[in-house]
Structures are given as structure tokens and as C-alpha cells.
What we know:
The chain has three domains: 1-47, no CATH class; 58-126 and 250-295 and 311-354, 3-Layer(aba) Sandwich (Rossmann fold), CATH 3.40.50; 129-245, no CATH class. It has 16 helices and nine strands. Helix 6 runs antiparallel to helix 7 and helix 7 crosses helix 9 (234-246). The two termini are 33 Å apart. It has a nine-stranded mixed β-sheet, with helices on both faces. A hairpin with a 2-residue loop joins strand 1 and strand 2 (38-45). Helix content is 41%, strand content 15%. It binds S-adenosylmethionine (SAM). S-adenosylmethionine (SAM) binds at residues 63, 65-67, 89-90, 92-93, 95, 111-113, 116, 270-271, 288, 290, 319-320.
Amino acid sequence: xxxxxxxxxxxxxxxxxxxxxxxxxxxxxxxxxxxxxxxxxxxxxxxxxxxxxxxxxxxxxxxxxxxxxxxxxxxxxxxxxxxxxxxxxxxxxxxxxxxxxxxxxxxxxxxxxxxxxxxxxxxxxxxxxxxxxxxxxxxxxxxxxxxxxxxxxxxxxxxxxxxxxxxxxxxxxxxxxxxxxxxxxxxxxxxxxxxxxxxxxxxxxxxxxxxxxxxxxxxxxxxxxxxxxxxxxxxxxxxxxxxxxxxxxxxxxxxxxxxxxxxxxxxxxxxxxxxxxxxxxxxxxxxxxxxxxxxxxxxxxxxxxxxxxxxxxxxxxxxxxxxxxxxxxxxxxxxxxxxxxxxxxxxxxxxxxxxxxxxxxxxxxxxxxxxxxxxxxxxxxxxxxxxxxxxxxxxxxxxxxxxxxxxxxxxx
Length: 412
Ligand SMILES: C[S@@+](CC[C@H](N)C(=O)[O-])C[C@H]1O[C@@H](n2cnc3c(N)ncnc32)[C@H](O)[C@@H]1O
């Protein structure tokens, strides 16, 4: 028999009761696991699903290893109140930040990758489509404009000319400090459309949508695909993608996002050293760290960085690549120490770890001692299984070892 849910209104109960009430109500199994001499409950069940609450289309900016919006929402709703500060030290495309904004929390988003802010911040200021169309029409497009790097393996010359014109326009606006929310929105959508598999992207050649591969690999892919360059109308593509992103954004969402976005703080620090965040100020951190699979940010982000005038080498310097579990644990311990400093007394950290590489490495069991050594208590491990979304793709994920979300919950 399922436990009965408490009748006390959610906002009046202690945070941990709110969370565990919900978890126990929905759980399939619970096991006590022993980690470093401590017994910790590991709850397994379907606590949130992708169908449960349709996530807002505004999230649909692809980013490597991003999580589903339902995950941060679940923890933000149960472990924080309106006005509390919610933080993500590995913010990526900003899934936690956006959900926190929609739920009226204060936001701090940090990521060592300098692309993170330009991909996240503009979505706090969603434009009106008519204004967007007008601005797109105003951006001057030069004929035969050529990029200062070789893009012939990615774009038709006319598309390249349009992209270069867009880039020049953004650089000029920024140089004259005239850049506004509309410019930043267009730049974000264009960055998202630079590379992809379909006609909805600027590239004629197939490129992974979430992350460009290295220039050298791209040359090989293009040669192999033997594809004829094809012009893509960048303005039409930007407008169409904007329409999709904005569908479902209600007037209340706009109001909440604008309000929280104006106060939100976007940082580009190493998560181990975030001096800009005052001690004891964060109620809740919801995050998913880089995993053991090394990502070479210099090689992979060349196209997005070029378009945004960012130096990928700077990003690479700030992002240590951990090739072994020991290296990874050392970096994460540094992160936990910093999280302990910034977290409010009795505040929480929800740390998503998944199952890395193969099922033999259970990162949750490695993460618990790191958080505890930094000063936190580990209160639970939550494994979310999404049965209603069980598809062939899920099966494939199961085979490759990424079946479910595993989140370790710490309290200060
Ligand atoms: C798994 S992704 C997070 C994705 C995010 N949850 C989302 O939904 O978009 C991990 C992120 O950690 C960032 N990162 C890696 N090492 C870092 C460090 N030492 N400090 C700050 N950010 C780092 C990477 O740039 C990457 O964006």
C-alpha cells in the first residue's frame, strides 16, 4: 500500500519532508545502502516523467549532456520556496536556471564554458515575433562576404555570406554598446542553428546539432557524404526556430522570466572557485557535473566560439578533463567544498550523477563520501525511472549504460 500524502500544505512543511513524502508516495523500491559506514536510503521509482508536465519549448536549445527540465523542477519545487536562491555550478544551456526563473526563484548560473551564458540568458527575455521579424529585416546582409576561417565544408557561399553579415552586425552592435535583448536572442538562435542534420540548420553537411565536431573531422564527413552545397536562408531558419521556442510561453512565464532574469547572475568560473557568490546564500543547488567521458572543448566548439567571438582555448583552460575516476573525484571534492561554503545552513544540493561508462562505476557511491568529507550530510539517493517513456531509444540507452537519472541529495 502506498503511504498517504501529508495533508499539511506543501509550503508549510520542512523541505526534506516535502521531498520524501512525494518520493515515498511514488516509489517502487527502497534499499538501504552502506557507504563509508553510513546507511543511506536509495529510492527507486518514477518520480517525474517527461509526460507529467510538458516541459516548456523554450528549453529546446541543444547542449551536450543536458538534463530534462522535469528533473530540476522536481527538486526546486520540493526543496526551495519562491524568492530563495537556486544555483547550478555546471549550468550548460541553463536548464536549472530557466526552471528556477519560471518558478520565481533567484538564480545563479555558472559554467566555465563561455558559451553557456549567451545560450541561456537571452531566454529570460523572450521577444515578440513581430519585433523579431522587423529586426531580422533590418540586419544588413553583405554579398559575397567571406569568413576569416575556412567554412567551405559546412556552408554554401551564400549562407556563409549571411552568417558573416550576422556576425559583423553583432560585433558592431556590441562594440558600440548598442546590443539589446533582441540582438542577443537572434545570436543565440543563430548559434543553435549553425550546425545540424536537417534543413532547419544552416549547414548543408550533416553535423551533430548539439556540438560541432572538429574542423578536420568535418572536412572528412563532408567529403564522405559527397553532398552538394545547398543555400539555407538564415533569416527564415532563425524565425522558424524562434517560433518553436516561443510556443507555449505564457504571459505569466514571460513576466516571471523577465523579473528573475533581470536579477539573475551568470558566472563563467571554475566551479571550485566562485568568489562572486557570498557564503551561506544558496538554498538549493541542482546540477549535473561533467562525467568521465572527456570532452575537448577547443576542438569541438570551434564553430560556435568563432561565431560568438569567444576564445575556445580559454574555455578549455578552465575545464579540467578528468580521465580517471581519481582525477574526477579530486575535482568534484573541490566543487563540494565550494558548494558547502555557498550553501545556507540546512540548504540542499541535488547532484545528478547517472551511471558512467558502464554500470560497474556507480558514481553515486563515489560522490557520497566526497560531499560528506566537505561537511554535508547525505540524506538520500533518488533513482528516477521513466517507464512511460520506455522506447527503443531508451532500450538503446539501457544497453549503453544510461538508463535513469540518479541524484544524490545532500543537506548542510
Ligand atoms: C553535464 S554538463 C551540464 C549540462 C546542464 N545540466 C544542462 O542541462 O545544460 C556539464 C557542464 O559542466 C561544465 N564544466 C566542466 N568543468 C567545469 C568546471 N570545473 N567548472 C565549471 N563548469 C565546468 C561544462 O562546460 C558543461 O557545460
